[in-house]
Amino acid sequence: DAKTTQPNSMESNEEEPVHLPCNHSTISGTDYIHWYRQLPSQGPEYVIHGLTSNVNNRMASLAIAEDRKSSTLILHRATLRDAAVYYCILRDVVDDYKLSFGAGTTVTVRA
Amino acid sequence: DTGVSQDPRHKITKRGQNVTFRCDPISEHNRLYWYRQTLGQGPEFLTYFQNEAQLEKSRLLSDRFSAERPKGSFSTLEIQRTEQGDSAMYLCASSLTGGLASQQYFGPGTRLTVT
Question: Hey, are the CB atoms on B42 and A43 less than 8 Å from each other?
Fold first, then answer.
């Protein structure tokens, strides 16, 4: 499995942006970058994914470095409901059926 | 569409007993996945089905574990002769298709406690 590295935790104030970094220096050319999050006492939920270009959806934005060795998930205005564990996951052609979760980043949002 | 559902949500059992969990995926989703999550860790893949066929099994899935998806709809995960190390959250997910861009939808999980 390709590996990702994320900070263990991050804190943010409500209504401020949150930038969650992810390093994936061993990424291959066909690997997709996915982000999922897990709210307390719930199963993970999909946030966003990308391959090479930056992506936006209603939940977040994904900024991918030009060399693809790192990416950043951006929550534009954090709310208390965004407090969760955020997982950065690489999906490769060998194991395309599964999600390989690491420990993720625990995001705390202060009111 | 009510999402992925799992039953029961919580199960407490004594060591050595058998337990069975059920997962109902989103209707029309061809793929169904099982993951296990222990406290403080991310989920770990166990197995997945394409329709009724079980296509992959992780090394984590010992001989005491068996999963079925008899008609390509709901799935069951059975653990025989439970051990304390089996205590975990068991998560089910489904997806409409496979592929690197596909999205998996997770259920709320079944929390198993083996005493």
Answer: no
